């Protein structure tokens, strides 16, 4: 599909339209051109987008695919008249849901409008700051406030996972490295001992770990396969002994790791 | 809607189902109970979810709303028979798209499968590491590799925005504070001067800034409203003089800020 364009048209950021569209397009072995048109919130802007879509259809000889999240019906009616295959999540799902719930949708513009004023949003920002402050065992202060503490050897995926949990789910996620000194002592870092129940482990295949570490410090003891094998085995042994649940990050994305952790820790405010 | 449940049922992480469902539910003034059921990838698990949905319907006296992203038709057929209003994005959108494109969908399971092996995923992880290393002006090393450098006074929203750009879009986003010493000197921090074209400014209403800083350091000069007014005015004057585009983060979420920045910087690999 080299000569085919996909448009994301929204009166907000277009993030919902794009996530929605990507999840559908991921089902196809095709790489269409992506065109984002956020903040389309006046008829003038809508007509301009329609012109652009129609010109694209002519140029490519195929009508574009258009994912829309437009709450305002006047603007939506303009866009759906473009020479395109329009996928409209609001009309398809929101309107039937109104009937089911017996209430009218409030037709808010965009899921993030006024987000910056909500408690949920403030919690997310606070969680990001918390996770940054407690990245890589930087601080054991306020660890009691952590909802989860990721542990594992250096470069097992703790940092991006902590930040993802904070950013997407507002979870205060600290992370703490397990280092050779801990293995020599045969005990968790002392700052962690009181919080063992909140710990969740990440492990990784030694071969993959060596590869990742090699990019950072080539030809070092740190990245040597024998050392990676030793650290991973020692960390798994310690987690097993301490009764810490863990998973392997080797073939998992941070989204998949985070989902598994959430299922395990079941934070009170996220009903599972 | 206190006695109403919403289920997210997926054979992957359920992130797509949840984003999709949230964007639809955001249109309603209602707070249903959320129940996530990821990794439903066998008929047994599907039957178990159906039992749970049916029991919920009985208990609440209202059939639940169920958002599904199930690629496997055998599993999907089991779940759609639950006593529920089922919203199925694949059947509704993927199948018509097959007809439009004239190709079959590859029925991949989940948008993130094999994500951990893709170049795009590696770029995201690298961008997160880059943004962390270049948070708060920590390092001017490799600033040439940054795709955008956010500048602004302390607590104007630079850090969460940089991390969001990295995590969601794989953008190498550095951030650099503008501090009183810069205003006294009347010049950008020297490390930034060669990269002025990549700078993007964040500003914020002084009242909001004082409030945020107050939570951190109450009753300090740092959080005093007069000082916040001075710093914001001086930062805006500097950005104006240096020709740096900027926006106000006061009432914007990080998603909205990031979308605006992307539209402005138009990174080569994201077609706009």
Automatic annotation (TrEMBL), chains A, B:
Q: Which reaction does it catalyse?
A: [pyruvate, water dikinase] + ADP = [pyruvate, water dikinase]-phosphate + AMP + H(+); [pyruvate, water dikinase]-phosphate + phosphate + H(+) = [pyruvate, water dikinase] + diphosphate
Protein origin, superkingdom: Bacteria
Give the main EC class: transferase
Q: Which InterPro entries match?
A: Kinase-pyrophosphorylase, PSRP
Keywords (alphabetical) are: Kinase, Nucleotide-binding, Serine/threonine-protein kinase, Transferase
Q: Which GO molecular function entries does the Swiss-Prot or TrEMBL record give?
A: ADP binding; ATP binding; phosphotransferase activity, phosphate group as acceptor; protein serine/threonine kinase activity
**Family statement drawn from the similarity comment of this UniProt entry:** Belongs to the pyruvate, phosphate/water dikinase regulatory protein family. PSRP subfamily.
Spell out the protein name for this chain: Putative phosphoenolpyruvate synthase regulatory protein
| Protein species of origin | Rivibacter subsaxonicus
